[in-house]
Design brief:
It is a single chain. The protein has two domains: 187 residues, Gcn5-related N-acetyltransferase (GNAT) (Aminopeptidase, 3-Layer(aba) Sandwich), CATH 3.40.630.30; 133 residues, Aminopeptidase (3-Layer(aba) Sandwich), CATH 3.40.630.30. Helix content is 35%, strand content 30%. It is built from twelve helices and twelve strands. β4, α4 and β5 form a beta-alpha-beta unit. The radius of gyration is 22 Å and the shape is globular. The relative contact order is 0.15.
Length: 359
């Protein structure tokens, strides 16, 4: 591979870059949903104003050919109300900002054969760029290109493993019966045997998507005792631009009443379980969330979907995703601190909590 060149895309290049982006994504090991142009473009349009940020999409080229994309944005943050920082962060998340839509499996996009070279080129660009004080790489896999960039970039500042979480997924067999047989008897009862007790049915919301998404957000807000956020607008915008075959927006209904709403997306052979909410009035003696998941997984098996991804996040009372015999995928948030005052702050904070610097 010839010497690599790194440059920042203009906003116009990003808006016009879907085809090149998706072509490179298909050659990489990056996640086909959360690292897609559609997801990140939608995320940025819904968050740019509130974050008061600037796009900083770094493209990596070899002999004029695109071989890497680091989708960053730059914005200003304040730590402890005093320490100001210019933060370079991966598109798709705003670290520790609960008002923003949450994305998982974030990454730097690079073909498998060029991962190491792209990391080194990006590190050199970061070293020469004076405009950032800290770099945040949220929710990345341990074997991702982004994790590799964090490690080779450790020489630029103080690298810390800020937070971790676990995503859960299951490889689907050829039939739902085989899947259900592998569950514990208690989970199988909630997923399958309670169907007769509810006497419900699942419908696909196609004509009234926005109203259904609004109902979903209301159920989620009620469940978690919070105000409805901007997720309805984000999801409505996203599903509008996706292929209708990718969208699985369903309602579990009983006696013409909506019991539960679920939004899943099917991309690259995987069904992603994005969000669901249920009416607590139906939770007495029943598990509406488990029932709806059972119907969703049954449909996925029937349609030949290869994998069902529950993503990260716990339930209100327990980590229910583990009940589905799911496999764990650790996700890490790396925080690379370059500004001297911030380095001192986080070194002290990490020492007090017993954390160690990543070598």
């Amino acid at each position: 591979m010839s010497a690599l060149q790194v440059r920042a895309w203009s906003v116009e290049e990003f808006h016009a870059g879907r085809e090149a982006w998706q072509r490179l994504l298909a050659l990489s090991g990056a996640d086909p949903l959360f690292m897609s142009w559609d997801w990140l473009d939608c995320w940025w349009r819904h968050h740019a104003a509130a974050l008061d940020g600037q796009l900083r999409i770094l493209s990596v080229h070899s002999a004029g050919e695109l071989c890497g994309l680091a989708p960053f944005y730059l914005h200003r943050r304040t730590h402890r109300g005093v320490f100001r920082a210019r933060r370079l962060e991966l598109l798709g998340n705003a670290w520790r900002d609960s008002e923003c839509v949450f994305s998982e499996y974030l990454d730097v996009i690079a073909p498998r054969v060029a991962r190491d070279a792209v990391c080194m080129a990006l590190r050199d660009w970061l070293r020469a760029d004076p405009d950032w004080d800290e770099l945040v790489l949220c929710n990345v896999r341990e074997d991702s290109v982004a994790a590799g960039l964090a490690r080779v970039g450790a020489e630029l500042g103080y690298l810390r493993a800020a937070e971790s979480m676990t995503a859960w997924s299951v490889s689907l067999p050829g039939s739902f019966e085989t899947f259900a047989a592998a569950l514990s008897s208690n989970t199988r009862r909630k997923v399958l045997h309670q169907r007769d007790k509810l006497a419900g049915h699942v419908t696909i919301a196609s004509a009234q998507r926005e109203a259904t998404l609004t109902r979903l957000e209301q159920l989620v807000a009620q469940r978690w005792n919070r105000q409805p956020g901007q997720r309805t607008r984000f999801h409505a915008d996203l599903v509008e631009k996706l292929d209708p075959e990718q969208v699985r927006l369903t309602e579990l209904r009983a006696d013409e009443n909506c019991v539960s709403v679920m939004l899943n997306l099917r991309v690259g052979g995987t069904e992603y379980y994005l969000q669901s909410g249920f009416d607590p009035a139906y939770a007495r003696g029943l598990s509406p969330g488990y029932l709806h998941l059972g119907y969703a997984i049954e449909s996925a098996c029937r349609d030949g979907v290869q994998r069902f991804d529950f993503l990260a996040g716990r339930g209100l009372h327990r980590d229910y995703k583990r009940d589905f015999a799911a496999q764990a995928t650790p996700l890490q948030t790396f925080h690379l601190v370059r500004k001297p005052s911030l380095r001192a702050l986080f070194r002290v904070a990490d020492r007090l909590r017993g954390a160690r610097q990543i070598v």
